[in-house]
Write a structure and sequence with these properties.
Helices cover 41% and strands 16% of the residues. The protein is globular. Bound molecules: nicotinamide-adenine-dinucleotide.
Length: 404
């Protein structure tokens, strides 16, 4: 005799942001749903035509640029998507992570549209992740025609040696003293960062360089799950003088240079075997969980947002990825490449006038005039929105079930 089904216990809670340094340890499921819907609505309003990707793998699919890539693929081109992320589900006492809620919302909305949308929550650097993804592609997608590499991680366990490598955010060569902003207190001060040693540089390249991207493409190729004309891209940031000492010319910049090496090797292989291509795509600075952890970036972004909003050129993740996929990778011409073979959608940020205005403000900014001369309010609001807070129409005093 069948036992009567036990109703699942639903423990509702009122969820408020709990910010610790540059992370928020809570996330709001309804707010994350609204934020995913806003991005879907943006794409739906664009009137995208022409051929695009149909079977897409997104590595780092749950937040920031990876999530936007998944949304443009699914809702712009009707693509089936498989995602890999590293997120926390909710427990009875704690909310899930924002990426967890974003992904549940994305899957629900994509499935409602009749699209395949599955996500594997695992360490993308592991061999097991590659095997699990290949199994899913074989079972549900056949082959993939676009692979987006959008991981941002502080450490990586090398699948061959088992060694755990940690990245550092440090300058190279000389110590660097730069203005920085404590986003909790709104205090602008100076920070001195000591240069990395060679070991730290090598470890950062291990984590954020191109090796894992190459391993993914190798595994997918060997398993026979790459489609003809397959495209792959990995994301990078270049920036200008203000951020070079801590980004472009620093440890993370070195790791990103290694992406160029990997892109060229992968491009060679894919173009010969599949008529495909591999490109590094350069994106603009944006408030994400990854960028808020980088010293100097929150202050730079607060000033940049102010200037770009004044110029009418401000963009978020979805606008950037829309331009990248629709106007570059899947346009009716080949993508426009820079001298290193990269696709650029960061040029509005690097515009000379924009940079010189940001630089002028950079020299002036203090704790006292921060709100007046920067868009710190906009920065903070974007930061809360990453975790599903400050979204319009959400009742943040209502009890919600965190275990979606
Ligand atoms: P993000 O923190 O919003 O997203 C990172 C993603 O990686 C998440 O989906 C997370 O779950 C996933 N992830 C992290 N570790 C993982 C692991 N071990 N296994 C599986 N998944 C894992 O980051 P983002 O800012 O969107 O950055 C994505 C890429 O874009 C990075 O390469 C970053 O350098 C690049 N980029 C970012 C900016 C920016 O300003 N934020 C600008 C240009 C380029």
């Amino acid at each position: 005799m069948a036992l009567p089904l036990q109703p699942m216990e639903v423990i509702n809670m009122i969820i408020k942001p709990k910010v610790r340094g540059f992370i928020c340890t809570t996330a709001h499921p309804t707010g994350c749903d609204v934020s995913v819907q806003e991005q879907i609505d943006y794409v739906a309003n664009q009137n995208i035509s022409g051929d695009g990707p149909k079977k897409v793998l997104v590595l780092g699919c749950s937040t920031g640029y990876g999530l936007a890539s998944r949304i443009v693929s699914a809702f712009g081109y009707g693509a089936d998507t498989l995602g890999v992320m590293f997120e926390k589900p909710a427990t009875e006492k704690k909310t899930g992570s924002a990426g967890w809620y974003n992904t549940r919302a994305f899957e629900k909305k994509a499935e409602a549209k009749g699209l395949f949308a599955k996500t594997i929550n695992t360490d993308a650097f592991s061999d097991e992740a590659k095997t699990a993804v290949i199994d899913q592609i074989k079972a549900h997608m056949g082959k993939v025609d676009l692979v987006v590499y959008s991981l941002a991680a502080p450490r990586r366990k090398d699948p061959k040696t088992g060694e755990v490598h940690s990245s550092v955010l440090k300058p190279i060569g000389e110590p660097v003293t730069r203005k920085t902003l404590n986003t909790d207190t709104g205090v602008v001060s100076e920070v001195t960062l000591e240069p990395a040693n060679q070991d730290e540089i090598d470890n950062t390249i291990k984590v954020m360089g191109g090796e894992d991207w190459e391993l993914w493409i190798e595994a997918l190729d060997e398993a026979g799950v790459l489609a003809d004309n397959v495209k792959t891209t990995a994301y990078t940031y270049i920036g200008k003088e203000l951020t070079w000492p801590i980004y472009g010319h620093a440890t993370i910049g070195k790791a990103k240079e290694d992406l160029d090496r990997a892109a060229s090797a992968i491009n060679h292989k894919l173009s010969e075997q599949y008529g495909g291509e591999a490109r590094v795509s350069v994106l603009k600075a944006l408030v994400t969980q990854a960028s808020s952890a980088i010293p100097v970036m929150p202050l730079y972004i607060s000033l940049l947002y102010r200037v770009m909003k004044e110029h009418g050129t401000h963009e978020g993740a979805i606008e950037q990825i829309y331009r990248l996929l629709v106007e570059e990778f899947y346009a009716d011409r080949d993508p426009i490449l820079d001298e290193n073979g990269r696709v650029r959608v960061d040029l509005k940020e690097l515009d000379e006038q924009v940079q010189s205005e940001v630089e002028a403000l950079w020299h002036k900014v203090t704790s006292e005039n921060l709100n007046e001369i920067s868009d710190f309010k906009g920065y903070q609001s974007e930061f809360f929105r990453l975790f599903g807070f400050e979204l319009p129409g959400v009742d943040y005093d209502a009890d919600v079930d965190p275990q979606v």
